[in-house]
């Protein structure tokens, strides 16, 4: 869609997942056996026809760069346009911008060179198959200055507590923006706005030493702007804590939940060519997701195993998430555990967490 350019802002998503974000930003955290959290919003933009996407990053993005490459899986490895990974420029002596505004001020050429008249702006913590092209058509029909994308979950969960809430009138207009905990209209940290208006509001924020795009450019101007609300009605998960990551991951073992996330449109990710999973004589696997390259000679139940995991004879894994290339040696017992990449659990060790607070082992650890 040449009517929109994409902006994915990762500035506030650095350390929310504890051990899983020791060595990477939140958007690069592995999810669902073979994906990263960034894949979902990238895929949504790609399927909506967005051809130019900027990622605003600040630190801990080496893993993200390795995963995204030149953007090939999302058809963004183009001679013109495509994927732009844009840290702020620290060397401009005239720059008075702070916070998120630094990214925009230091990369104005991205917006000025892009031919699209509108932007679609998002983070990576809200997962779902969001149709940005339908949201754009709604934005135009409403004649809105800005359209906020929201979801209304059947049940409010702990991860919804820090989320912004919207009051929405019958005509689709936003009448208030707040944090009232009993309101179920959850703002998904995604909006669509005309590009020139966006840059105008950003310049006003910079002039007043304001730092936050949504709070300072939109929420503070809610009485001056015509703000519409587009409701996303499909799958929606918020990954803003270790507990929400663990619970939403294991909920994908329910086929209905899995298909609600992955069936509306494909989720694209970095391609890795590996052999199929190998189940040895002692393997017992039940109600689990097992990725390519795994070799299993133990018991796995209600768990997610990423690529290349080795589970040796007599090992038992229950209610756990085991990331890429972990080695689980003989006789190990893991229950309610998250192992980051390249962890080795030596023979006979038992690790047990709680379903409400899993036991987490950071990347490259040997126990």
TrEMBL record:
<dbReference type="InterPro" id="IPR029044">
    <property type="entry name" value="Nucleotide-diphossugar_trans"/>
</dbReference>
<dbReference type="InterPro" id="IPR056818">
    <property type="entry name" value="GlmU/GlgC-like_hexapep"/>
</dbReference>
<keyword id="KW-0320">Glycogen biosynthesis</keyword>
<keyword id="KW-0808">Transferase</keyword>
<dbReference type="GO" id="GO:0008878">
    <property type="term" value="F:glucose-1-phosphate adenylyltransferase activity"/>
</dbReference>
<dbReference type="InterPro" id="IPR011831">
    <property type="entry name" value="ADP-Glc_PPase"/>
</dbReference>
<feature type="domain" description="Nucleotidyl transferase">
    <location>
        <begin position="18"/>
        <end position="177"/>
    </location>
</feature>
<dbReference type="InterPro" id="IPR011832">
    <property type="entry name" value="GlgDAde_trans"/>
</dbReference>
<dbReference type="InterPro" id="IPR005835">
    <property type="entry name" value="NTP_transferase_dom"/>
</dbReference>
<dbReference type="Pfam" id="PF00483">
    <property type="entry name" value="NTP_transferase"/>
</dbReference>
<dbReference type="Pfam" id="PF24894">
    <property type="entry name" value="Hexapep_GlmU"/>
</dbReference>
<feature type="domain" description="Glucose-1-phosphate adenylyltransferase/Bifunctional protein GlmU-like C-terminal hexapeptide">
    <location>
        <begin position="283"/>
        <end position="351"/>
    </location>
</feature>
<dbReference type="GO" id="GO:0005978">
    <property type="term" value="P:glycogen biosynthetic process"/>
</dbReference>
<dbReference type="InterPro" id="IPR011004">
    <property type="entry name" value="Trimer_LpxA-like_sf"/>
</dbReference>
<comment type="similarity">
    <text>Belongs to the bacterial/plant glucose-1-phosphate adenylyltransferase family.</text>
</comment>
<keyword id="KW-0548">Nucleotidyltransferase</keyword>
<protein>
    <submittedName>
        <fullName>Glucose-1-phosphate adenylyltransferase, GlgD subunit</fullName>
    </submittedName>
</protein>
